[in-house]
Amino acid sequence: MGIALKETGQKADNKSPIEQLAILVKDELSQVNDLIAERMQSPIGMIPDLAAHLVDAGGKRLRPMITLATSQMLGVSGDKPIKLATAVEFIHSATLLHDDIVDGSELRRGKTAANRLWGNSASILVGDFLFARSFSLMVETGHLGVLDILSKASAVIAEGEVHQLSVIGNVDLPINEYMTIIEAKTAELFAAAASVSAVIATGSEQQQQALDKFGRSLGLAFQLIDDALDYSGHDDLLGKQIGDDFREGKLTLPVFITYNKADTEAKNWWQQVLSAETRNDDDLAKAIDLINQSGAIEDTLSQAHKFALQAQASLEIFSDSPIRNCLMDLCDFLVQRRS
Amino acid sequence: MGIALKETGQKADNKSPIEQLAILVKDELSQVNDLIAERMQSPIGMIPDLAAHLVDAGGKRLRPMITLATSQMLGVSGDKPIKLATAVEFIHSATLLHDDIVDGSELRRGKTAANRLWGNSASILVGDFLFARSFSLMVETGHLGVLDILSKASAVIAEGEVHQLSVIGNVDLPINEYMTIIEAKTAELFAAAASVSAVIATGSEQQQQALDKFGRSLGLAFQLIDDALDYSGHDDLLGKQIGDDFREGKLTLPVFITYNKADTEAKNWWQQVLSAETRNDDDLAKAIDLINQSGAIEDTLSQAHKFALQAQASLEIFSDSPIRNCLMDLCDFLVQRRS
């Protein structure tokens, strides 16, 4: 990838930073998993069934881990970080349920998407349920500031999704507008997941801003890696199909970069293929070929590295500690992941 | 309708109680309308466009009026009731946007439903946006208790919707289970709209419970009248088509009452027609005929009256005042409405 990230923390026992992080917040993460299971319960059986299908499929629990880790870094213990981390995961889950309808996705986390099994209506309503439960969890922390951050973040996420919806197929979209979209739809929740810790720690405004910047930069890096992997990863590692973004006509950074560098003939091809109703495997093969020729994957990864460095820099105001260093290592790790 | 409601308040100037109420909270309602317009704004134009299509179509603004009126009754002025009333209307609007997708509705408030114009995806996401904005408005009141009530209510509403979805077409559903569903999907928001006023008034637990009971009973009465009107109202007054519930296979109290009184032949007809993919105008005509013969409309209206009386009784702990008496009159009025 060619760009050196700052050397941080110790690499203990050959464990990846995400595994190290999971060890550092092990007890809390286990409590979060219990609380997730508890708060998705309802006498209406379809709700826990559908929610469990998504939530038990796991995912990386990256967002709640960020809340737990930043809370620990700021010296907060007790049930507040647990409740907040669960609230963050519920917002994320609600968003995924609604997104899978919007995107017409067939797979999520390697399993059939919930809306394909229970129908769109149930997925909409269970998303609403999880979103509501998430706010009840925040209320239990007793901090209005938390609700302020996460309600605003939720509005920004929805705005980002609508923004993306309104430019589907528009390959002439300026790259900075694309970055605005992913900052809203992905990075905003990472920023909120980190900065709420400063609220329950009654930390300084400077700490809250630093955590916001950390989460935001990490979220952008994370999304750009996702964008790159959709054209360069492996189906079995990804838990979804390669080229999903392309098939859905969802344009991402590798496509914008390739398009901007393309000659007229290639530009015409992109416009045609992206404005069509559907795209087949041959279209995808050609798209991957053009993307590889243009060096757009490397450019995308390089952008991701830049944001990872910013995320690391944001943590420098906090005292040196195993958890801080592990978060710094996580920035490296997330841009090097292959799934 | 045969059931006398308690005589309350003065009937001034031949105005209906809802018009009188609108006069008593006129300034506040105007501020709510301004705040609605302000807070549905977004740089993503599709959001205010879609939201305005629904929200400007008006509706009765009944739920925000309940918040404004109960706040006034408890002596609260200033911007808190305005913000809360707007939050309540946003939750209601978000629910309508999602419901119209779930129900496959074609009309809402006499206009083409938003999802028919902008698509389901946009309606899902704008609903999410309004829901998130609603919580930000609550945060601005500075009262966690408000967020507690409305986040729990939002979860209960979603539960009620999923519950309804899971029993679609099941005409053997016990009537008390149907009442549980409408209490969740409709009455819960009325209860919350009223009881949040006790929080910002720092009223007693008894006041909060009385307001909850008032809203809950009024909401049940309101829903049962809706149920009756769907089989006995007039298209041009309703702003939607007669028989929408029936066409969508959505079972309501008049159907359950009729079915429970029916002989085997009629029971078979109901089961058959309600398990079919679609229902035509002849089916509707026969359903209306059977419902009228069974006296189910009168029974439904009588139930609605019972709840209206309970709503009035809940207000008796509050001192006599024009606004309290107007709320009592509103209970009468809502069960006598024809649209």
Please identify the top-level CATH class of chain A. Answer: Mainly Alpha
N→C terminal distance of chain A: 16 Å
Q: List the quaternary state of the chains.
A: homodimer
Annotation field: number of helices of chain A: 17
For the largest beta-sheet of chain A, the strand count, sense and barrel status come to: 2 strands, antiparallel
Output the strand order for the largest sheet of chain A.
1-2
Could you say how many structural domains of chain A there are in total?
1
Identify the overall geometry of chain A. globular
Q: DSSP strand (E) fraction of chain A? A: under 5%
- Write the CATH architecture name of chain A: Orthogonal Bundle
Low-confidence stretches of chain A: 1-12
Average pLDDT of chain A, rounded to a whole number, is 91
**Share of helical residues of chain A:** over 70%
CATH topology of chain A: Farnesyl Diphosphate Synthase
The SSE order of chain A reads HHHHHEEHHHHHHHHHHHH
Structural category of chain A: mainly alpha
Number of strands of chain A: 2
Say which CATH homologous superfamily of chain A is assigned: Farnesyl Diphosphate Synthase
What would you report as the Rg of chain A, rounded to the nearest angstrom?
A: 20 Å
